[in-house]
Each structure stands twice: as C-alpha cells, then as structure tokens.
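ENTRY TYPE: paired fold submission
RECORD: A
CONTENT: sequence, then structure tokens
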Amino acid sequence: MSITAGIDVGSTYTKAVIINERREILAKDLRPTGFKLSEISKTVYESCLKMAKLQHSDIKYVVATGIGRHQVLFKDVHVTDLTAAARGAKQLFPKTHSILDIGGQTMKASRLDDAAKVISFRLNDKCAAGTGAFLEKTARYMGFSTEEIGRLLTTSKEPVPISGVCAVFAESEVINHLSQGTPPSDIMQGAIESLVGRSAQLIKRVKGEPEHTIVGGIVRFETLASSLREQMGSEINCPPADLVQFVGAYGAAILGLIRLEKLGGQRERAFEAGA
C-alpha cells in the first residue's frame, strides 16, 4: 500500500497530513510554527505517525510545502503552496477553477485549469491588512483572543467600514471607532468585510472563474465566506471545518502519490516538483 505525507510549514501554523493510496486521510495534526521550522515540521509529522500507528518506513513519500518547505529536512521533494493548495482543493471540490487562500501573513488568489495546474495567480500587497494577522491584531487590541473572534462576529448588528489600505491606517480607524463607542463586534465584522473586499478584488485580478474555493485558517470564521458569497454574487466552496487549514498539506500528500506513480513506485529524492 502506498502511504504518503504532506507537510505544510506556514507562517503561522505548521500542518501535516498522512494519506493512503485511496487519498483517505489517516492522520492530521497542526501546531503553531514558531521559529524552529525544521523542529516543528518533524514534530507534526511524528505526531501523525503516532496517530496513524505507522512507522517512518511505512511512508513511501514525503512532500513539503509552505513558506518553510525548504526547512523540512526529511522531505523527498517540495512544491509551492499554490501547487499544493490547487491539488487539495481540486480533490475536495473537483470543479474548482479559482482558489482564494487567506493565511496568517498572506492572501493568494489563483486560477486553475481542468488538470489542477495553476495558470494565473496574484498575491496581496505587502501589508497585514489583507491577511488573518490583521483580524487577530484587531481582536487583541479590543481585548479579545483569537479564539473569541468567531463568537464576537455572531453578535454584530451594524458593521462599520474599515477602509484603511494598510494595517497602520486600518488600526487608526479601529481606535477611532472604539473612541466613539462602537461595539467591538461591529468593528470586528467591519474588519472581516474589509478583508472580503480585498479578496474579491484579488480574484478578479486573476480572472477567476467558478467554481470558487476558499481555503486557509481564516475560513473557520463563517461570516467571511458568507460575506464573500454576497460580494461575489456566486457560490463559494468551503472545506469542512476540520480541513480548512489542511488543504495545502493534503494536496502535498496527494502530489506524493502522483509522484510515486510516475516513478513506478520507487522512491527517489528530488528537490522541486510540480506534479
């Protein structure tokens, strides 16, 4: 049986997924990335091995992705996060032709062909206002933890606009709204809708076509997906809640299976692949 692993070392969280030849997930784990990238990648991988009751020798191929993919010392090959997300999203939603990936530090939009190849992509401006980090910073400024953002959003009644084009200016708007007595829930929802506006523009820049799929940790806040649907005027696919942060790692593991098939089942270490 061919069993592969995908390791996604993101700027905020590191994820690992182990799958079998039927592309079924045997184990998955997620931990904060921190600063020791090689160590955290090994930790999540070994955690998955333990959960799946597997040995290192049982894994036929390991594919790394994400910003820290070069630091995964036990990988067989690495791929870009765009390539991995495309493969994972296409597996979950076969008709996907556009992907919006909102992470802690980046936001990426890509357009795919029928074979899950990335044919166009765009990244957000180099500013935290277009990422999950801005939402977390906004919550902390108002005295809430990241875990409380979801609950806070459900109580919003009248979102206020957050129009700042960078995190510094947007933070000034948050301070101004607080000084005027605006409820934190309405400020938080305003920040979500600001991010949604940036997301919609990014999808348009890659000439995104339906079906659209949104991935990344930020998707766990349900109001973001509903706001994006409203603004885009079309359906948006969302992975199950327990998979939203694992699409890249899952896609990397699938690419491992594809790579193994191309190699005739023989393991071969390589540096870069776009299977």
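RECORD: B
CONTENT: sequence, then structure tokens
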Amino acid sequence: MTMKDMKYKLIVDGVTELFLKRGINVVTIKDVASSLGLGEATIYRYFTKKENLVTEIAIKLEEEIFNSYFRIDENLNGYETIHKFYLSFLEVFINRKEFYRFISEFDNFVMNKDCNLGEYEKKLALFYEVFIDGFNKGINDDSIKRIEDINAFYLTTTHALMGLCKKLASDDILLQDERINKVNEIKMLIDIIMNSIKK
C-alpha cells in the first residue's frame, strides 16, 4: 500500500463515524478536515469533492456489513442459507441501525450528484452471490421452490427488506410508528418471504 493509499484510507476510516452520527448532508469538508486535524485542501487533494468521500465511506460500510453479517455456514441446507441471508438484515438492524440511516441518506444524496458508483455496485454484487449460491443449493437439495425470475425475486425481496429497515431505523414520525415492535415487523416480512419459497 502506497503512502497516498494509506492517507486515503486514514481519512475514510477517520470520518466514517462522523458521517454516521451527524449525517451526510450536515457534515462538510471543513468538518472532515477539522476532525482529522488536516487542511481542507488536503481532503480535496484526495477526494476532489464531497461526493467521492461519501461514496468511499458507503463502500467501506457495505464491506464491513458483508464481512460481519453475511458470511454463510456451509453446513446449512439451501432453505436455511436463504433464511440466514434474510435474517442478516435483521441482525444489522439490531446491532448497526446507524448503517440503515446512512444508506437511506446515501440513496437520496447520490440521486442529485455526479457520483461514480461502480465500486459500490461491486460490493452490492457480493450480497447477490451469497443469495444465488444459497438459492441454487436449495434447488439442488430440494428445500426450496423454483422461482420463475430469481433476479426479480432477489431485487424485490431485498429492496422491500432494505426499505423497511431504513424506515424503521429513522426517527418515529407517526404515533403508530411508536406502537409497533420494529424487530417483530422485520421478522414478519422475513417470514412472508421465506413462506413464499418453502416447499
């Protein structure tokens, strides 16, 4: 790793918590520089613009979440593997709720910005690989039903689960939001998904 790469990583690692706690839209490059004891010009030298830094933080977080929660036990059958995959979303909600808040902000942030999301999408592809391996295993061991369009199933279910987790990770807006057990709501969605593929 070059000195430049080390400095780049140092900046990303050093300000991830700042963005998680305060939010993407609130934190400025000036805040980043100040928190690291660096000049703003140094930050811009490495990242050119805030969008590049935020994208690098998103990549770092996706990698951390994948490595910490989405590793699958090879001894599970296909159905159990898919169930563990979806339950990982719940584990992240319980242990790293701030991740969902960040991703919710990130989704909105990149919509109106010129961001290169190629590396970010590569990280997302890792989740798909775990899912598709589990699904194929389930077809082979006859523990799950065949799905006509597995890609659409994956996107629909993960978007629904991510959307729910992002909403529930944000502050309560309505009274009904306060009355519901958020963990049970996520479990219920996972049960609905799993029942749709159970043989």
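NOTES ON RECORD B: The chain has two domains: 1-48, 55-197. The chain is about 75% helix and 0% strand.
STATUS: closed
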